[in-house]
Amino acid sequence: MNSILVPSDGDGELSLHAVHFAFEFGKRTGGRVLFLMFGRDPDGKSPPAQAADRSHEAARRLELAISSARLRGLDVSTYVTNGDYVDQVVAFAGDHRVSRVVVALPEPGSEASAQVDEQVKSLRARLGCVLVTVRPRRDRPAPLVPEHETGGVSAPPPVER
Known about the structure:
Blueprint (H helix, E strand, L loop, with lengths): L2 E6 L3 H18 L2 E7 L10 H23 L4 E6 L3 H11 L4 E5 L8 H14 L3 E5 L27
Parallel strand pairs: 1-2, 1-4, 2-3, 4-5
């Protein structure tokens, strides 16, 4: 069976793009989708209050997306870990016989871009499976589950061009 891993280290808005891709791919291939959520910063640092609020909102949206995917028949499992992002993703992918790891890339030149680029290079070198990278489209906000599947929660407003 195809297993698709979506690791999420706290950038929920960005992770939602990887989640959307993994759900669509899982639906088409009959694969199961595994989420590897990182509990907190490996250094034990707490995020600033504003970042924590964004993280909680993204986590809520992710929970809604997972519930919706399960209702549509997708096999979805969630795991939580701590530690180094690359080490944990590589170990998890090997232990769970993952066929694809899906990672969303931030905008080039953004604050997080250099760190994510280094993580992707390390993952490509160490993973024994396919690494799929997705980039959010500028003309589309982070995907969310349709209102009729979430009890009234809607997607964020469209991005103005």
